[in-house]
Write a structure and sequence with these properties.
The complex is a heterodimer.
Chain A (H helix, E strand, L loop, with lengths): L1 H28 L6 H4 L4 H13 L6 H13 L15 H36 L4 H15 L2 H18 L19 H35 L2 H9 L3 H13 L1 H16 L2 H6 L5 H10 L3 H29 L7
Helix pairs in contact in A: 1-14, 5-6, 5-8, 5-11, 5-14, 6-8, 7-8, 8-10, 11-14, 13-14
Chain B lengths: L3 H32 L17 H4 L23 H4 L13 E6 L14 H7 L7 E3 L5 E3 L13 E4 L6 E7 L14 H12 L13 E8 L2 E6 L2 H10 L31 H7 L10 H7 L12 E7 L3 E6 L12 E6 L3 H9 L5 E2 L9 H4 L5 E16 L9 H9 L3 H9 L28 H10 L3 E2 L5 E3 L2 E2 L1 E7 L2 H16 L3 E7 L1 H4 L14 E7 L4 H9 L22 H12 L3 H18 L2 E14 L2 E2 L18 E2 L1
Helix pairs in contact in B: 11-13, 12-14, 16-17, 17-18
The chains are: A mainly alpha, B alpha+beta.
């Protein structure tokens, strides 16, 4: 196991270096920059200020030197300062301030998705080929193929605007709190419902299929037949024997989603104006605020790589049949 | 599959799970419905105990089960009306609040004007100018008691001959106070000027750099003195890099924007910023840091009607009114700026009554079909100060013929462009100086859409229509290349223009590129003058003098020899126009100047080096209950007169 881990760590480092180069290149090679607005001005001072700002931000250096500077600083934990989104504020502090919001949203969505996926998947597997199974299959494909930005808007229109018109209890249009009620947990929950459902359904669509197929396969095993032959109730057979083994592959899938906990769901957060990390990434890219964008991307890359490792290790821990050499 | 002896068990199993899940999930909307505050506008913000979201929900995994693991903080209950105890018995409801939605977050509240639009929108609540421009582009006194002009004696010439200088005196209002109670003094104005002149500050002191000195004879009086001919030449000798153009100065240095004092800045408090800059505003090297990173940029102290109460990063900025504002206590007590990135969400929010105003950075004319149907919400389409035009490179072999340029203008159906691209929500412009300007020539010739006339002119110029419908002369086709940026609006205009000009027998090829490439000083088609037909926009200002000089005087044709300076991309060379433009900048008599610019417009709208198209509309929306909402033409921000706003 140890040698496996060492090998994996080595590979991870390589992947991260490659990722950092790509992140840097993609942002810096694309046209446009943080000073486009000033660049087009007519003032005689405009050009001097621009050159000055470029010099201060190190934008006048050749590309590889800028990359080296940035990479060196990142390794030492200095993510730089934001250029536009929150001028002058340290990037790490900015990301940290949004992290909590993202955690709330993503944990709620993942928990909702897990519960729903388990229920749907289990029932689909038990009642295979029944009407319910087909219905749920169709819905899950629907949820899978639906673009989030459209579905999110639709939910907002129906549950916020139309419900209000029809006199039903309605939900707020986006954002995290009603202004002035920042400490109110109930208000937070009220704002949480729509984004969690939108995000959660998307994940449910994937996971329920997974649970279903995994459980079906497990139910076909011989030891399940033995358990039934022993006279155990179907509930015990499914829950105590089949489910545990069926869920092992699900661990992998869930573990891969954990980086999403921190990266946030960019599109959902943008539509619902949820002040999280996904939206910060969107704002940073729109404003060409490269330190912030790169900071978020590199953190996501690290998390993805770590999550993969965690998934593999967990798999070995949970399933005694698997041993790494 | 399980046999029927097990189906009862599986059904029970299923029912048990559904009961559990249903119970859990059912509690969520119930809690939500309970948590829903009474349907009133935003409750007045109370001093919140800094409940950062991370602290508010330490165990987020419990959230979906709808059982808060920690009791809701004992702060404001979701019944705001009970807590809004009106202090004045006369008022029926509590303090008034306005919620404004924007699509971006201001970067820095101490920034110079001309940066992010949303920053200016918020700054209007905090800062004052000496003199501002209102929604009709008229100069109005802000911190100053009156607008000083040569006519009313506020400005006068002192000295004789080469020592003659223009001197402008401003009297600051006696009741003007900073939000910490200190009076606004002339020292603050001088401090701001010194700050602008600091080369590291990032300001654009186009007018302010022309002051030889700024004096403060008493606490409420500021005197700006422009360079004389003599001192200008001395300055040019001393600082060749920045004052090169003063080397051959003739007569006293003047600038038509003198009536504004400091047209490119708000007034900043010297007592607060001074110490941060070691009381050396002109030379301090810390100015970059102070003006972009200090706490002052998040919670500035200003002289206008509101103070920043709270800034929740990424979400909202809350401001409360000052009762000691010199323009009178604002009727709107609380203003909340909500930052919502998507325009669709903003429109949904104003429809749901969650917002009262949506600013123009978030909206576009294409939202008109939705905005016009919203009940209780009024949409505003204001033709802005930015106007689109087609520059024609007069050195091009085809375009150097004036009648060809005229024909192209007649072949352009601007009404069709406005209908299709702007849904009819703006109007065409007929001159290089806008019709709201005091210098506008009402009798400028109007080139309406006249395809017949266009074809006549082209025929007369020797361009005969070929078999393929495209005109040709001496074996050369009437083919031109159109270039512009890749903004969605221009990408809609170009194919329509191509079809319109095709009818007249002109073959137009279209090319779009990113703005940075288009406007690049050395390599862009505009500055390097490699274009044939180029579309972009100028922004009209209070005074057309400097802008017209920059764009149409032959001294401002950018080329390799002059370092690509100037904005006369078409390469227009007209002795008469040059003379009029120079004269317009040499005198300050507005009546005289109006006549000069009217003559100039007559000439240029006959020569047509550029074809003015239309003004770009600004779209904003406000609830019908909001009074005195007057979105301006310029980019000053809808909040420029927020102290006059009132909510029914």
């Amino acid at each position: 196991m140890t040698s496996y881990l060492v090998r994996r760590l080595f590979e991870m480092t390589l992947v991260l270096i490659l990722a950092s180069v790509l992140i840097f290149l993609i942002l810096h090679i694309s046209p446009g920059g943080p000073f486009d607005q000033i660049a087009f001005g007519k003032g005689s001072r405009g050009q001097d200020y621009l050159d000055n700002m470029n010099r201060l931000l190190g934008l006048d250096q050749p590309l590889h030197i800028r990359y080296a500077n940035w990479a060196w600083k990142i390794v030492h934990g200095d993510f730089g300062e934001s250029w536009r989104v929150s001028m002058g504020r340290p990037v790490l502090e900015l990301i940290w301030s949004r992290l909590g919001n993202t955690l709330i949203l993503m944990s709620a969505a993942l928990a909702f998705a897990l519960v729903a996926a388990l229920l749907i998947g289990i029932f689909s597997a038990i009642k295979q080929y029944s009407f319910w199974d087909y219905l749920v299959t169709a819905l899950s494909f629907f949820g899978l193929s639906m673009p989030i930005f459209w579905f999110g808007m639709l939910m907002m229109i129906v549950f916020s605007l139309q419900f209000k018109e029809w006199g039903l209890p309605y939900f707020p249009v986006g954002q995290m709190h009603t202004v002035g009620l920042e400490g109110d947990v109930l208000d937070l929950l009220w704002h949480l419902v729509l984004p969690v459902v939108v995000l959660g359904l998307f994940i449910v669509a994937q996971w329920s299929r997974f649970v279903r197929s995994s459980l079906l396969e497990t139910l076909r095993q011989d030891y399940i037949r033995t358990a039934r032959a022993k006279g155990l109730t179907e509930q015990v057979v499914v829950v105590r024997h089949a489910l545990r083994n069926a869920l092992i592959p699900l661990i992998t899938v869930v573990a891969i989603q954990i980086p999403g906990l921190f990266g946030g769901a960019t599109i959902t957060e943008t539509i619902f104006a949820w002040p999280g990390m996904g939206r910060l990434l969107y704002d940073a890219v729109i404003a060409s605020d490269w330190p912030v964008a790169m900071g978020i991307l590199i953190i996501s890359a690290v998390l993805v790589v770590l999550a993969n490792l965690l998934a593999d290790v967990l798999y070995a821990v949970v399933d005694p049949r698997i041993r790494y050499t | 599959m399980a046999s029927n002896s097990n189906s009862k068990a599986s059904r029970r199993l299923f029912l048990r799970y559904v009961a559990l899940a249903g119970g859990g999930l059912a509690l969520t909307p119930l809690a939500a419905a309970c948590g829903q505050p009474a349907a009133t506008p935003t409750p007045p913000p109370k001093p919140t105990e800094a409940p950062k979201p991370a602290a508010a929900a330490p165990t987020p995994t419990a959230a979906p089960a709808a059982k808060p693991t920690e009791a809701p903080k004992p702060t404001e209950a979701p019944k705001p009306t009970a807590a809004a105890k009106p202090t004045e018995a006369a008022k029926p409801a509590g303090p008034k609040s306005v919620r404004i939605g924007m699509s971006q977050e201001p970067d820095n509240l101490a920034g110079w004007p001309g940066g992010m639009y949303v920053t200016a929108v918020v700054q209007n609540l905090i800062f004052n100018y000496l003199v501002l421009t209102d929604d009709k582009m008229n100069a109005q006194p802000d911190l100053a008691e009156q607008v000083p002009t040569l006519d009313n004696g506020g400005a006068k010439y002192v000295g004789e001959g080469e020592n003659k200088q223009l001197q402008v005196t401003f009297k600051i209002r006696k009741d003007a106070k900073w939000s910490n109670g200190d009076p606004v003094t002339s020292a603050d104005v001088k401090f701001t000027w010194d700050l602008m002149m600091n080369p590291d500050s990032g300001a654009s002191p186009d007018t302010e750099r022309k002051y030889e000195k700024v004096e403060t004879p008493d606490e409420k009086t500021v005197v700006f003195t422009f360079f004389s001919e003599k001192s200008a030449k001395a300055m040019a000798a001393k600082d060749k890099e920045n004052y090169e153009e003063f080397a051959d100065q003739k007569g006293p240095v003047v600038d038509p924007l003198y009536i504004f004092g400091l047209p490119n800045s708000f007034i900043f408090p010297s007592k607060i910023l001074g110490p941060l800059l070691e009381n050396q505003p002109r030379t301090s090297k810390k100015v970059q840091d102070v003006l972009s990173k200090s706490d002052y940029t998040r919670k500035p102290i200003g002289s206008a009607g509101y103070i920043v109460k709270e800034w929740v990063a990424g979400t909202s900025i809350t401001l409360t009114a000052r009762n000691d504002y010199f323009k009178g206590a604002p009727k709107i007590q609380n203003v909340v700026f909500s930052i919502v990135p998507k325009s669709d969400t903003l429109i949904a929010q104003i429809k749901a009554g969650q917002l009262d105003v949506v600013t123009q950075d978030a909206l576009d004319v294409k939202d008109a079909p939705v905005l016009d149907t919203l009940q209780g919400v009024k949409a505003f389409y204001i033709p802005g100060t930015a106007w689109e035009h087609l520059d024609l490179n007069v050195d091009n072999a085809i375009l150097k013929d004036k009648s060809v340029r005229k024909a192209l203008y007649y072949a352009t159906d601007r009404n069709e462009l406005i209908e299709k691209v702007f849904l009819g929500k703006t109007k065409p412009v007929h001159s290089v100086i806008m019709d709201w300007s005091w210098a506008y020539n009402k009798e400028v010739p109007i080139y309406g859409y006249d395809l017949k006339k266009a074809e006549e002119l082209l025929d007369q110029a020797g361009w005969k229509k070929g078999a393929d419908g495209i005109r040709a002369k001496d074996g050369k086709k009437l083919a031109l290349r159109y270039q512009s940026t890749d903004s969605p609006m221009r990408m809609k205009v170009s194919p329509l223009l191509k079809d319109q000009w095709k009818k007249a027998g002109v073959d137009l090829t279209i090319e779009h590129m990113p703005g940075k490439a288009f406007f690049d000083k050395k390599t862009g088609p505009t500055s390097a003058r490699t274009f044939e037909v180029a579309e972009y926009a100028w922004v009209g200002g209070y005074d057309p003098g400097n802008d017209s000089q920059y764009a149409y005087s032959s001294v401002n044709i950018p080329s390799k020899d002059n370092g690509y300076k100037g904005g006369n991309y078409p390469g227009y060379r007209s002795k008469d126009a040059d003379k009029l433009l120079a004269q317009g900048l040499a005198t300050l008599d507005q009546k005289e100047r109006a006549k000069l610019y009217q003559d100039f417009q007559k000439i240029i709208m006959d020569d047509l080096p550029t074809l003015p198209l239309f003004a770009r509309p600004n779209t904003s929306a406000a609830t019908a209950k909001l009074k005195n909402f007057k979105p301006p033409m310029s980019s000053a921000g809808e909040t420029w007169n927020i102290e006059q706003w009132d909510l029914e």
